[in-house]
């Protein structure tokens, strides 16, 4: 049943968005419908596939499992905020150069997950990185070139 | 060739990595005023609908809301085929769990789902039949009561083929190997589930369906036929599509209902499937069983093959390819790349109260390859032969070869890829390591899988299945703009394969332009020529072939204009680096100059040439076979039944590789789905038909941790079966991998006498086999 709406202000990619949403509305739906940021995709809506991964205060979260009303003051980052104008972020560039995507649907989630881990742990080893990347599902690439891409971005971001 | 053969970065990617790709849900969410639909679905597998009660005033649409709507029914013109009609919304009976009964329209998806929950569908549940073999029992419930079933209860296709000397081959045999192969029910599982947005324009009377789909033109025709409206009133757009693997090929009932609702209400309505709906009632796949008997002589030669194939096709037919694709492909292609003269097969489709089946990457070939490759390994063990040697002895090595069913096999590298896999693995070294491991009580195994992947087949191949709707050809329209850039409009409908990039490479070489100057337009029935879309590993072969033919025509026209302009012979003109030059000289004219003449100074064209630079070509080939050898190395934990993949080697021959990076990506993805099919993914239903794996907590696609490094080596056998030299590659990974994995597990567990013939080989199945083997040898349970 539809519920009373709550007014809130979200800070996404450094921009402020005013929205009035039902308390039950997920962060993912709010980003997509109220902020117009449709780069965050929904693959399962029950927190397994990770396609909807965004960063909340630089931590990766499943935006399908978080309510918008839970993130009033935190800084949210989505795939739309990665590039600097026309200049791609190293992780985006690496996915492009190493064929880290095919259909591209799961890609925003992987990019945000990888960005988070490479920012917080620039020296992370291959095995641990693999475990982190196991958070998300991809159906096209068999993960081979996702690993190659994230390794390349790690090297690029260290230098 | 300047561009063909290069791993060019994809033009598709910059938008996708920036989150600017527009998938159907993105289009819906960006459109203001979109209404949202939710479907009310049957909670039971079988029953009679007594009533449908909606909350007062709720916008609930049922079959009664659409009186003019027809049923969906695709047919095969064969005497052994029973056509099944699918209502768009169920009105009298429900025949599978999740069958759509009504749709609810509201301002948001959440509100639509709330309302859908309040719709009460009173169904008198009846006894379902879920298993295909059980369904053929005369006493089993009949899924489509009242339909004449002359071939047996619920049997909707019963196809047979036999050569004359089959019995003699079995009498002559030194060893007869019998197998019972089972491939359980699975789901193609694109990460983007299905979805569509129907927008009715009351001004023009036209409806645009934006949909996650692989066959936009076919979908438009189907909508016009089923809704009985003019095809000109419809436009189908396929925006970015988030993976499909066959699941977005056939026409969904939901899309038809959505278009009908949008026209009825004069509205824009979205339906975005959720994951549970997708697992329950999108399209399922596999669910085949093969009873197989192979007759071998002492040296391992396959003398005869006898197969009884049963495909559980669920409650209805898909549209347009029909359920016949499963048993008929299995029957036609079972012998694979092994020389065989005596073959008998019976292949049935059986309807049950399960979700309908539609093609999934490889369709029947992952299972038929599993069947043949398990046969080879089992025969080798019985005859004390090496699994590599028995394959070498039987593999086709002289071409052209014709399968016993008459299917022609063009040149490939079956023996060569096997030999290369043996070398890549260091098989001798592995066998030593395996023995050492055995001494430590560890179970290591290696498995091979050699197969051909029939690809790029056009109308003749589909016509052989007697399909009323016969797919096959592709058309490419090519236009050089006044600036010298090129627009290619194609009927194929790529959704992640990078076809736009690969076609631009091919066209760039033909026309002497840069790939970035080629815009490939696809996925819009208003702007592209009629075609069959992207499925069956066909696009590079068929759309690529049509692109090459169109480019040859355009190049001829460019050469003729240049020759006229330069007072030379067209035969002496070469198109290169953006110019038309007289061979061996520096005399030339740029392509933009020619294009300006053709468009803006057409009075200067050689008579009787028409203004403009626009050509079209169609390609409709008979088909080709790409091939590969897969080899898996596994370690099985006997205590848990867990299988760890240590290595996975692929020697792949896809003919000419236009973009090797893309080819390798297709192999990676296909192999991973094959591994998933072999080990993890299964739709499990209880005895009442309830799906127990309705979320990704229970249906288990692999993560990066389950997939080993996939070591790919490329071989390129070029044949004249494809005018570009390219053979298809989209499905091969998924076709070969299950057999390699199950052979490797069987090799690992051979000290226990275990053969694994059922996929997925989940830990519980492997444990059960070990338990049984140990209780047989020790006389007690472990």
Offer a concise description of the structure:
The complex is a heterodimer of chains A (about 160) and B (about 775). Chain A is an alpha+beta fold and about 160 residues long.
Q: What would you note in describing this structure?
A:
The complex is a heterodimer of chains A (159) and B (782). Chain A is α+β, with helices and mostly antiparallel strands. Chain A has 2 domains: 6-80, Ubiquitin-like (UB roll), CATH 3.10.20; 90-158, [2Fe-2S]-binding domain (DNA polymerase, domain 1, Orthogonal Bundle), CATH 1.10.150.120. Chain A is built from 5 helices and 5 strands, in the order ββαβββαααα. Chain A has helices at residues 27-34, 90-97, 107-120, 126-133, 144-158; strands at 6-12, 15-21, 53-56, 59-62, 75-77. Chain A has a 5-stranded mixed sheet, with helices on both faces. In chain A, helix 2 packs across helix 5 (144-158) and helix 3 (107-120) packs parallel to helix 5 (144-158). The longest helix of chain A has 15 residues, at 144-158. The model of chain A has no long low-confidence stretch (mean pLDDT 96). Chain B has 782 residues and is of the alpha+beta class. Chain B has 3 domains: 13-126 and 190-244 and 248-281, Alpha-Beta Complex (Aldehyde Oxidoreductase, domain 3); 285-459 and 622-778, 2-Layer Sandwich (Aldehyde Oxidoreductase, domain 4), CATH 3.30.365; 473-619, Aldehyde Oxidoreductase, domain 4. Helix content of chain B is 30%, strand content 24%. Chain B is built from 20 helices and 29 strands. In chain B, the strands form 7 sheets. In chain B, strands 3-5-1-12-9-10-11 form a 7-stranded mixed sheet, with helices on both faces. In chain B, helix 15 links the parallel strand 20 (486-490) and strand 21 (518-521). In chain B, helix 12 crosses helix 13 and helix 15 packs parallel to helix 16 (539-566). The model of chain B has no long low-confidence stretch (mean pLDDT 96). Classes of the chains: A alpha+beta (159), B alpha+beta (782). The interface between A and B is large, with 58 and 59 residues.
